Amino acid sequence: MKTFKQLESQVRSYVRSFPAIFKTAKGSKLWDEQGKEYIDFFAGAGTLNYGHNNPMVSEALIKYISDDGIIHGLDKATTAKKQFLEKFHDIILQPRHMEYKMQFSGPTGTNAVETALKLVRMVKGRSNVIAFTNAFHGLTMGSMAVTANSFYRDEAFINRSNVSFMPFDGYFGPDTNTAPYLRKFLEDQSSGVDLPAAIILETVQAEGGIKVASDEWLREIEQICKDFDILLIIDDIQVGNGRTGTFFSFESSGINPDIITLSKSIGGGLPLAIVLMKSELDQWKPGEHTGTFRGNNLAFVASTELLSYWENDNLSNSVYNKEEILKEKLLEIQDKYPDIYAEVYGKGLIYGLKIPLRGFCSDVSEEAFSRGLLIELAGANDNVLKFLPPLTIENDLLQEGLQIIEDSIKSVLETREAMIGDLNNDS
Length: 427
Hints:
With about 425 residues, the protein is an alpha/beta fold. It has 13 helices and 17 strands.
């Protein structure tokens, strides 16, 4: 790791959790330079829903490049973009009776959020936006302003203006509905909360600790938006693309967002970000919001292939089946190890195992890595193990990875108990 320590910025993070030099990857596995194998419960922070080096993507990219296909096109019309637009419309939008225009922003999720925020303020002529506790929407200036975690919101560089935070579903406990709380603030002309242009939310707060909004709460938020002429933005960057079982994470609620942001897995591991907007919101002047890498032709090729997964219900059914395996094992761990006070949250193939003991989840992640598994943490205090395997992971490999997690928890627990015993003996 000497090269990385000497030449790369201190800002690097995942390499500290997973200190290996990875060389190859396939499906739900990676291998380092020494040939050690790792099961991937990380999936590029949700970018690799369809696995590493999906063969459909690899074959299509090799052919596209060998045929001298357009690599960089700004927002010019290309064959790759045309094929993507048509297939996304035919496979995703039309069967769901959705009518959205597509805008290709800069290539990452935060670019899509920035675009959406700029658009809603322009359309509504209002500057305020409502976001929620524990939200994460990105780390550029606009998206960071609607991100709640204090770790990112340093006083030196955050722009705190024009954003009001409200409690997410379940913030005050499972028996308290926070939607009426929000409504009260909007009704009260003396609440200090300006009427917003939009409300932005994640249906499952991934970085925030795997907090799942109920369908009922989402419907109430949508009704509030209708009642007060507010636009609703759903940030589906991490939990869209099938992560919850349906292509869009909000489908079970029946809501109809004004704007949806997509990125991460939509490009099959290649940079691509999209803003879906209702047609009446498409009020941009030509070139009014632009960027050198808006629309990635290689990602268009990859995504067009991967959309084939959504021509039937097979992938969705597979996700639901794997969810049962994942959830059952986590509940088993919760019951088996009462001394760690674990709680289980999740939906589809994004689950969290919250363990409130200080540093316990970090120790488990480190132990799991030594045993050949990658898993990251979530929550403001890094006290949630975040289960995010590729949607295409084989059932037996999922079970093998979950056993590594249990073995790691047992090992960390035994180590801590031994340390406590040693301290007691010393005293």
